[in-house]
Every structure is written in structure tokens, then in C-alpha cells.
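S.,

Sequence below, as promised.
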Amino acid sequence: MPVLRIEGLKKSFRVPDGTRTPIIDLPAFSMEPGEQVALEGSSGSGKTTLLNLIAGILAADEGRIEIDGEALTSLSESGRDGLRARKIGYIFQTFNLLQGYTALENVGLGMYFGAGADWAYAKRLLERVGLAERLEYRPRQLSVGQQQRVAVARALANRPRLVLADEPTGNLDRRHAGEALALIRETCREQNAALLLVSHDPGILAGFERVEKLAQINRATFEPAAPGNKGGA
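The prediction came back faster than expected:
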């Protein structure tokens, strides 16, 4: 059974003149358990929108998304939240760490939305990503690379079936980007979690056996946001 199956997925947004602009029109897409796929897309091409649809953060206009055999698109908002907590790990480009909490608390608190906090496992994850000496540090006390490692540990805390990574190395320099990518891929392999990583970096894309170009699989056509415009998809 595929860990991710998409059929006839569509999403559009209303623009200031009142019309709707199609962002995602994806006829079919699937991933097998443990598979690692890179999704190539330029800034504003709709790749973050697609990840948010898969994660259940956004509701689709049409179509079906199945996560490990469960139909995400047939669930209520609270149902989607529950499925995301149980089956999906999300690594955001901006990390989205809770600034008032320690590294350990950031990982452990995320577990409450799944099966419940397992502080011993949260600690082991942080040790696994090289932060054994930083458990009680808050995000502002960590380097950018260390914050990324906390975000990776948090995404894997509930033993997800699918990990989504949105430009996870975009805020890192080349050396730390390589280290972070290797860490994400290795930890996903250890947990047999499928990985869908979006990027426009040729160096990152070159390391994946399966690379999908969003512009080729997405039938929606629209003008990406201009540089500096934060309204892009």
C-alpha cells in the first residue's frame, strides 16, 4: 500500500479582483513506504501549498489524498489534525520552534498531539541529532544549524509514516545544508519513513534517485509571485 496516494487534487485561491486562481491541479501522485522523493519547484510555484494540502493544513477544493490508507480529504479539520499528528512529520523552512521552550520541550510537546509525550524518546532523538549537551537550551541560544536539528527531531518524534520537508536547508550555508540533509535522510531510513522534500537547489536534487518537477506534474498554470512579494505559494 502506498504511504501517499493523490488523485485529482485541486486547490485555488481567491485574488483581489474576486476571481480564483488555480494553484494545484495534480492528477495523480504516489509514494511507497520508505521512498525518498525530491520535488523540484521554483519560488512561488505552489510547492508549499502542495505540502500543506498533503499535511492537512489546507483543505483541498477537489480530489483525494490518502495517507497510509486513510483518506485525509474526507476528514474534518480536527480529523486532519489528528491524522497529521499520528502519521506525518513536517520540517518547515523557518523551523517554527517555540521560542519560550527548551529543545527537549519543543520535541516532547509535539508528541502530545500524537500518542502522548515520551520524554525518554525525545531525549534520545536529540542525542541522535547531536544535541545531547543542548537539551535545556532555548532556540535563541542555539545556532541556526542546531535549531534545524531540533526541527528534525520534532518531525520524527511521533514515528511518522511520511516526512514532509519544505526547503529544509534554505536557511543554512552549504556545509551545514549538506549535514542537515544527510541527517534528515538517514533518520528517515532508520524509521522507514517516506520522505518528500521540496527544493530548487540542483545540488540537493542531484542526490535523489527520484526527482519530480512540479511544473510537469501540476497542470495548474499561474504567474508566480514577484520577488519580494510574500503572497507566493
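Strands lie at 4-14, 20-31, 36-40, 62-67, 70-71, 88-91, 162-166, 194-199, 210-213.

Coffee later?
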